Amino acid sequence: MIEQLKRENIDEFNRLSARYFELYPNEEKSKRVFSACVTISYALQDISSLYVRYLNKKFSVDSFYHIMVKVDIVRETYRQILKIFNFKESEIFGNESTKEREVINYFTAIRSIAIAHPQNTDRHSQFGFDGSRYLEDVRKKSDSFLRFTSSENDMFENADFILCLVRINNENDSSYSTDEYKGINLEQNVFEVVKIIENSFEILNNRLKIEMEKKIEDLRRTPIKISELLSETDFKILLEETKKRYPSLIESYTDKDYVYWPLSNIRELMSFISEEWPSKKHELLLNEIVEDYHKKLQNMNLTTTYDDGEELLCSLQERIDSILYPTFKILEKEVNKDFHYNKEKIYTYLPKSTSTSYPEIKSANDSNSRWGLLKMLEVIEYIPEINLIYSNNTQKEYTDKELYFQFIINLFNYNEKHIKDI
């Protein structure tokens, strides 16, 4: 028995290929590889179920055809993946004499005679399928219809299924045709193909890692030049470099002509503090975050890879979160109240808001942004230190996001003041 069917290398390929096409953008190839991964994933689900049935000896002739089709889908889809990345099969499986190639080639021959070309298989002469043998049927070895000699019984001892073939004799033979049989062991001849392909993904993955590391090293050597002022131009440079190096960190909103990325609210908050709401403490913390982001972006160690893709490095994300999404735990403990729902709506709707709801905040709640503000006002009732200001010195109304900035600055300060109380 082979090992329980696994897919660790295939899952790693899914992650690596996504990152590969970030570094080497090619939309067409990326879509084709993504589609191929989905195809293989669905096929593997069915193969795993069929494998369990096989182990429990509940395999019928229908199951034979089912597994042949599903394994061939994996095999052919993998071949297409290799072509997309310009890899030759010989680079992955070795030459024709290797065990892996022999197993795959024999499976291909069985698939041809049993499914694709039962009357016209002539390209697998090394396995006896040279055009002179035709398929009549596929049967379970236990089928009472089959009658074997003692030597044939020994030959087919490990077979699960039998290919019932007929060979057309040449004109010198006394009979027109001869019945022949070929045994198929699913473990060795079919499921083994899946194991070989799964293992071979490791070779492909290593090749991708080498190509990716070359690109990453090139990007490390390409300087990202920004000034100490951290101006709007500097943030544009960081944004463009993030798009180039870590595009999955960028969220685009086509309906609002708005781009959201890890530093988008950091930049806006720095501007708000500089122009409207002075806070030396926040200014220092924000500068440190941007400097750290710049350094990690330059050194290509900005993210951590998870099963579903790249995410901002945890330590940096925590620092950003501490500023943009201050904890509610201290407040909840102080006032003995659960603000989970309020926090969810505030932190979901307001950081990406482009609205200005004042002075109609309480007159209607027909937008997510306004609902987030209402939930924020409910929280502020429990914090005497916070008093929102709705317009600046020129009587210009603050946006919903700017009111949110006031809130998180004050909540951050509240937490620092009361952290010793809990």
Radius of gyration: 32 Å
Structural class: mainly alpha
- How many angstroms separate the termini? 59 Å
Widest beta sheet: strand line-up: 1-2-3
Q: Overall mean pLDDT score?
A: 88
Bulk shape: elongated
SSE string, helices as H and strands as E: HHHHHEHEEHHEEHHEEHHHHH
The helical percent reads 55-70%
* Major beta-sheet overview: 3 strands, antiparallel
Strand content: 5-15%
Low-confidence stretches: none
Number of strands: 7
Number of discrete domains:
2
The number of distinct helices, counting runs of at least 4 residues, comes to 15
Q: What this model shows, in words?
A:
The protein is mainly α and 422 residues long. It folds into two domains: 8-211, no CATH class; 225-421, no CATH class. 57% of the residues lie in helices and 9% in strands. It has helices at 8-23, 27-55, 61-84, 89-93, 99-116, 150-155, 186-220, 232-245, 264-275, 280-299, 314-324, 329-335, 340-349, 368-380, 400-418; strands spanning 133-140, 161-168, 177-184, 251-253, 258-260, 303-306, 309-312. The strands form three sheets. A three-stranded antiparallel sheet has the order 1-2-3. The chain has a two-stranded antiparallel sheet with strand order 4-5. Helix 10 (280-299) runs antiparallel to helix 11 (314-324). The longest helix is centred in the middle third of the chain and has 35 residues, at 186-220. It is elongated and about 110 Å long. The two termini are 59 Å apart. The model has no long low-confidence stretch (mean pLDDT 88).
